[in-house]
Write a structure and sequence with these properties.
By secondary structure, the protein is of the alpha/beta class. The chain has a single domain, classed as Aldolase class I (TIM Barrel, Alpha-Beta Barrel), CATH 3.20.20. The chain is about 45% helix and about 15% strand. It contains eleven helices and eight strands. An eight-stranded parallel β-barrel has the order 1-2-3-4-5-6-7-8, surrounded by seven helices. Helix 3 packs parallel to helix 4. It is globular, with a radius of gyration of 17 Å. It starts with a helix and ends with a helix. The structure holds 6-sulfanyluridine-5'-phosphate.
Length: about 260
């Protein structure tokens, strides 16, 4: 089985290459989801756990005091700790509209987010619209092939279609949000949300799996952890724990499949 950094040779996308290399350099397949509500909380979390992650995931539109300064500081922390930034925008509209949502508005997502993601519900036009904007800045896109929530409709042929579309646009599409490995292309990165040490879900349909299961059994590449880390007392210690468990599961998987 190929290591993360060896897989960098199977993609032409600069962001995907960078991410694969960061993972191997920092020995981490952890993405922390910073779903907190103020600039101060986001920046504190990012600086505290920055050494442990390959990727910081944001929901920029839930931050109450958003301004340009937050973006500058996030970029500075990304540089300081060597991680990439993933804006979890989950675009879902026609190509023309998503272009504006990606490039314009208050957030100018394309200017600072290395990675963003999109639903494939509208068909290939959504990828083409985002691609025209994103490729100019060497960005990467993840397709939502599956979701972690109970009753998700992204299953079976929908998931297969996401995999097919990723291959068609593989200069820009770098992988998937999924619950497991869905593509055999080693250049594609699988990221899995719904990860926690304890697998009791929340009251709104979120379902959790353990880091060992997601990386070791389901063949995913990146763990996305939100509440499991940012709601803990000692975010650094807990992030380190997730990082170590995720990395160990990857190393064991590598040893199993030669
Ligand atoms: O299928 C999905 C896709 C995503 S990106 N399920 C998810 O939970 N997410 C996101 O991952 C979600 O929007 C949230 O930001 C994070 C999971 O957070 P947690 O607190 O449940 O770990």
């Amino acid at each position: 089985m190929l290591s993360y950094s060896e897989r960098a040779d199977y993609t032409t996308n600069e962001t995907a290459k960078k991410l694969f290399h960061i993972m191997d350099e920092k020995h981490t397949n952890l993405c922390v989801s910073a779903d907190v509500h103020t600039k101060k909380e986001v920046l504190k979390l990012a600086d505290t756990i920055g050494t442990e992650i390959c990727l910081l995931k944001t929901h920029i539109d839930i931050i109450e005091d958003f301004d340009e300064h937050l973006i500058e500081e996030l970029k500075r922390l990304a540089e300081k700790h060597n991680f990439l930034i993933f804006e979890d925008r989950k675009f879902a509209d026609i190509g023309n509209t998503v272009q504006h949502q990606y490039q314009n508005g208050i957030y100018h997502i394309a200017d600072w987010a290395d990675i963003t993601n999109a639903h494939i519900l509208p068909g290939p036009g959504i990828i083409e619209g985002l691609r025209e904007v994103g490729m100019k800045q060497q960005r990467g896109l993840l397709l939502l092939a599956e979701m972690s929530s109970e009753g998700s409709l992204a299953t079976d042929t929908y998931t297969d279609r996401a995999v097919e579309l990723a291959d068609v646009y593989k200069d820009f599409v770098i992988g998937f949000i999924s619950q497991q490995k869905v593509s055999d292309n080693p250049g594609m990165i699988h990221m899995t949300p719904g990860v926690k040490m304890t697998t009791t879900g929340d009251t709104l349909g979120q379902q959790y799996n353990t880091p060992q299961y997601v990386i070791g059994e389901k063949g995913s590449d990146v763990l996305i952890v939100g509440r499991g880390i940012y709601e803990s007392e000692d975010t650094l210690a807990v992030a380190t724990q997730y990082k170590n468990i995720g990395w160990e599961a990857y190393v064991k998987r590598m040893a199993r499949i030669v």
